[in-house]
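User: quick one, fold this
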Amino acid sequence: MARRSTKTPPPDDSYEEKILDIDVVDEMQGSFLEYAYSVIYSRALPDARDGLKPVHRRIVYQMNEMGLRPDRGYVKCARVVGEVMGKLHPHGDASIYDALVRLAQPFSMRLPLVDGHGNFGSLGNDDPPAAMRYTECRMADATSLMTESIDEDTVDFTPNYDGQEQEPDVLPAAYPNLLVNGSSGIAVGMATNMPPHNLGEVIAAARHLIRYPGADLDTLMKYVPGPDLPTGGRIVGLTGIRDAYESGRGTFKIRATVSVEDVTARRKGLVVTELPFTVGPEKVISKIKDLVNAKKLQGIADVKDLTDRSHGLRLVIEIKNGFVPEAVLEQLYKLTPMEESFGINNVALVDGQPLTLGLKELLEVYLDHRFNVVRRRSEFRRSKKRDRLHLVEGLLVALLDIDEVIRLIRSSDNSAQAKERLIEHFSLSEIQTQYILDTPLRRLTRFDRIELESERDRLNGEIDELTGILDSDAELRKLVSGELAAVAKKFGTDRR
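Assistant:
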């Protein structure tokens, strides 16, 4: 087949060629900085306020917009991915689905944000998740707390990539999601790696900090002694954890949970029921077999994976006669992923800037955000109630002299004149007058008057309560503390 060639038309006489000489070093530096900032701000690092990266925030927000509540049915993940990609995140379906899958994995998240139905992968990614056309999802029970009151002017919105939709800069986040679920990501020149924590412990520390803003780290660590990993395991040593809570960086070790049992009539064995965070059973089994074949590990007769949905993780390591199980276990800790190090690097965005934060700083950033959310929510609700009170008071004025209202309306040539006369006679606002004209006569009865008076009194009480919250920092802090306590009571669990 002949190849078509298109000739470039010659420039017209008005065209003036202009070539700019630029320094390649300056251009590379500027372009790289723009790219680095884009990766840091738009992809790799979580916001310290809601603990979410942009892709996770967009998934949660779009699921909320789609009405995928926990009490509704599941929908195909492909549909959610399509909505997120088309409206908010134009970066390819694979990255969106990978992020959605992680939000649904109970072994990755301490408090999953997505309720998944189908194969969402396994620990250590030994069994990858099914394609998005097969899996289904909806919001998890706790996810509604992340978007609660988002329609009450609690957070700022910005235009999406094409300016046709609006998306939130941050979610209201009724609990400290960054500490509870952790985060990981690699940016340009920096990375973040934050372990999950126990919801009840984190909220207890946050409430203590609300009451005692000057609390020191040792006091806060009485509430949060260390990470609470979804896969369990035993944390070895607290020095690295304290370093991380103080400076934002530190390392600690996690060991598998193992017991010595009689696995056959003649042999003892090691039964593994919990593995270090992100380590899967296939990885452990493969490493043990390689070490045995290389004769670097002795005393092991067989390794079996008896994991199932009913009993959870169960690896059985059969020990040969003549070997001490405890001695073999120490070798397993030393040579296999049954003991792993976790390097904490608490890097998150604060006011758009990446910062390394300790435990107290993480709690303070979250609480400042939450105070702002509750303050804006209270202002919004007070404004709405004042608007309603204004209408109710107008109706009550009309009800006190309903005969005169009807006479003025009937004697008017048109609705504009009727409105004018009502405003002048009763000293009403234009909004009140229009509401009176729009109200059916059947509502203007004595019974409705009693209801309206009751509503007026209730609105006045609620407005006074909201004003008290807005005028008193102590009341605001008390309200936030109470709401956090309610979250902990409903969703708190014991340490793994």
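User: anything notable?
Assistant: The longest helix spans residues 359-400.
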